[in-house]
Amino acid sequence: MKSSVEKLNDTRVKITVEVPFDELSAEFDQAYAALSRQVQVPGFRKGKAPRQLIEARIGRGPVIEQVINEMLPSRYSQAVQANELNVLSQPVIDVTKVEDGELVEFTAEVDVRPEIEVPNFEDISVTVDAVATDEAAVDAELDRLRARFATEKAVEGPAAEGHILTIDLSAAVDGKEIPEASEEGLTYLVGSKDFIEGLDEAVTGLSAGESATFDASIPAGEHSGETGQVTVKVTAVRERVLPEVNDEFVQEASEFDTVDALRADLAETVEERAKTQQAMAIRDAVLDAALEKTEFALPESLIEEQANGQIQSLIAQVGGDENMLNMVLGAQGMDRETFEKQARESATTNVRTQLFLDALAEIEQPEVTNEEFTQHIVFTAQNYGMQPQEFVERLNQAGQLGTVMADLRRGKALASAICKVTVTDSEGASVDPKEYYGEDDAEAAAEEN
User: Fold this and answer.
1) C-alpha distances in angstroms, 153 versus 132, 150, 189, 237, 241?
2) Which of 67, 89, 154 lies closest to 305 in space, CA to CA?
3) CA-to-CA distance for 65 and 30, rounded, in angstroms?
4) Does residue 345 sit within a domain?
5) Cβ(408)–Cβ(372) below 8 Å
6) Residue 235 sits in the same domain as residue 155
7) Torsion angle of the four alpha carbons 340, 346, 347, 352, in this order, in degrees rounded to the nearest 10
8) Residue 398 falls inside a structural domain
9) CA dihedral 241, 246, 250, 252 (to 10 degrees)
10) 353 φ, ψ to 5°?
């Protein structure tokens, strides 16, 4: 077998492969065996007819076609390996020449990883926020705990930010009421800004029993996206009452006996969270800095594949309902065109990052041990609420086990590179990245990849 490679552009090549007939004896055996089970030759049971009678029955063409179908996958793979290509997509194969008894020639166009010049990470310097554990952060953590034990009481007076309302909504376009845009008994937190634009302004200052009308974009139905008149009626106003912070509350809400003991524990929690955030900030800053120093072409097919995957995933989540899709997008302040544009931008970033990390992994040559792989599987399965074995089976069925291993390898390669970078915090102090991404921290970067 002979093969050659023609570079079409920085990310796509055409492989030309010639296979002599004398190398296809195994494929001919397989072809005749398969055809003998399909073709009925008088006087012979299926699978028992001689080759010459099979050819006499159906002709030489179907035999050659079967041989070609049998040999294409293996010969394509051999050509890829022989030419040391890092393929990124499924090939487009075209059989260009068949000379019976002589050779078969085919071409395969496929996307390949571009040449990437990885920068020297020792030349990279980044600055991240300092780890801060001030009393305000501890107070905020304590307030979150108090909120879990909060009670509600009715408010006699106008609604203000932080109040909890029960509201009824109705909407109309050009004076015609839209039933599907009407809801009763909704609970809404004033100031959350997580529903209809303009709702916060409309309800602020209203007391129970009062109404207001404002213009807003209709979120669903046949009038989705149109400007309509939304009427909101406040039926109840409540406020959240937080418990007083004392030893009695601490004993009820935690494992500690005193306020001081609880605050000390919360301070440790805040510090650990701040360190985790700093580690993530280092990772992101280093990766951004490295990518800024690197220019390379991206395979269009990979970008399209990932972008379409994001789009189809959201469509599947809403059961293919276009109205529901528009409502979901509208709640996020975007239309279908904007969403598709963002999906493409996200896909472009993902493809660029993955290709860069693959190139980095070739330099760093990280080894992912069975123990690390197992730990990652167990950790991820827990996040999905699944048993590890079930999670592995799902990955295997989807052909994603190799993807998981590749992600771990990318993460370890980045962790190794991060340890070479100079890191300074916002207060001018030096930060040792090995504290977060040392040799023993095998998955620190991989979990974020």
Assistant:
1) 36, 10, 14, 9, 7
2) 89
3) 12
4) no
5) yes
6) yes
7) 150
8) no
9) -60
10) -65, -45
> Would 104 be classed as within a structural domain?
yes
Contact at 8 Å (CB) between 239 and 199? Answer: no
Q: What pLDDT does 220 receive?
A: 65
Question: If we measure between CA atoms, which residue out of 349, 371, 346, 366 comes closest to residue 410?
Answer: 366
Residues forming a β-bridge with 211: 233
Q: What is the CATH number of the domain that holds 101?
A: 3.30.70.1050
Whether residue 155 sits in one domain with residue 107: no
- What 8-state DSSP symbol labels residue 91? -
Below-50 pLDDT ranges, the chain:
441-449
Which residue range(s) make up the domain with 21?
Answer: 2-111
Spatial CB neighbours of 69, under 8 Å, sequence gap ≥ 6: none
Cβ–Cβ under 8 Å, residues 78 and 42: no
Q: Is residue 201 part of a domain?
A: yes
Domain of residue 160, CATH code: 3.10.50.40
Q: What is the pLDDT of residues 25-47, one digit of tens each?
A: 888 888 877 777 777 777 676 66
Please give the tally of structural domains in the chain: 2
Rounded Cα gap, residues 85 and 112, in angstroms: 7
415 CB contacts (<8 Å, ≥6 apart)? 437, 441, 442, 444, 445, 446
Q: What is the pLDDT of residue 444?
A: 45
- Confidence (pTM): 0.71
φ and ψ of 90, to 5 deg: -75, 140
